[in-house]
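Let us practice reading a record.
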Amino acid sequence: MVYLIIGNGPAGVSAIEGIRQLDDQGKIILVSKENNPPYSRIMTPEYMTVEVEEKDLFWRGIDFYTEYNVETFLGRVVKKILPGQSMVVLDNNEMLIYDQLLIASGSRPVVPSWVNLDTKGVFTLWDKLDSEKINSHLAEVKNAVIVGGGLVGLQAARALAAQGVRVTIIEKMDRLMPVQLDETASSMLVRLVEQNEIEVLLNTEVMSLETENGGVAAVRTREKEIPADMVLFCIGIRPNLEMASNTSLKLEQGLLVNEYMQTNLENIYAAGDVAQAFCQHNGEQKLRALWPCAVQQGKVAGANMAGVRNRYKGSMAMNSFQLFGLSVLSLGQIENTDDVEEKILMYPASGSYQKLLIKEGKLLGLIFVGDIQQAGILFPKIGQFLEQGYWGNIPLVEVENIQV
């Protein structure tokens, strides 16, 4: 059996591990655009400013491929998939044959069409190479503008501010982390970021970049011009699916997969940022570019490629991070609707914020900021009735009587 894995991120690596648990003889081939052992993208902001060293990035060690007996084609890109021939074509026109194929090619940063990334001082922050390019420029940076108020942008802002750089975050929406946090949680985050001398501009759109001598000099919004020696775009990602175009693979926002992480073609699977898998919350198929989802999807795909029938339980929105010492966690649905009830367990005046989202007596989601100790108990409770099982010290009955 020949297993071909496209991508060496958490989905691809987890698939390799899943295959080897069941098949220690089959041939595993890995194709990856990046010429590195598996590493953690989560740590790229810290690597950018050398808060962590290169060796600390490699989450499975530098000998992973040798240990798992994987033939590698690193620094190569799959240009085309030929499903009818069970073959892929690489960017150097080399052809590889497979019996089972996993597409775990990940994603890339979204950049506005008018932005020229060849301009000195203009970057994205997504992979190891991005971090290294930024690091080589940092000695010249006094003022940095980060476009995008998501997690990567916030982590980058903290890391740059720690180096003495004056940082401004520009977010087009009305709050930081608008997909992951409600207005209250975001307001707490904004206050914390600003207390650490990082300027936050919400409801603000970047219109253009001003350049001087081939390098960026300023960012222009509708309201003003902001000096910048460096501009970092962190406004979203797009799945790497060019290789699947002009094939019979079914695509929407990503590759449509069933509960076995199988595409519409029996011997082709998808996992991670490219996979449009089932959502636990509503059963719909959607992209979920999250590390834990990629790991679980990769495990399921690898096992199924090796001959078992494991089911993926479905993805769930989940985000957990710490910024300037503040712990933040969101899980599942975070905003109330007409048929969803909010229960506030802690108000911001207490130093923490805890909110549950409940529908017809079942827990749909939560946001915890500050005190997150009880979150571990709630994680497996999503979709369950509040009255069932152990809920720790969480006051589910009289939460509405808590005094601010």
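A brief commentary: The longest helix spans residues 291-305.
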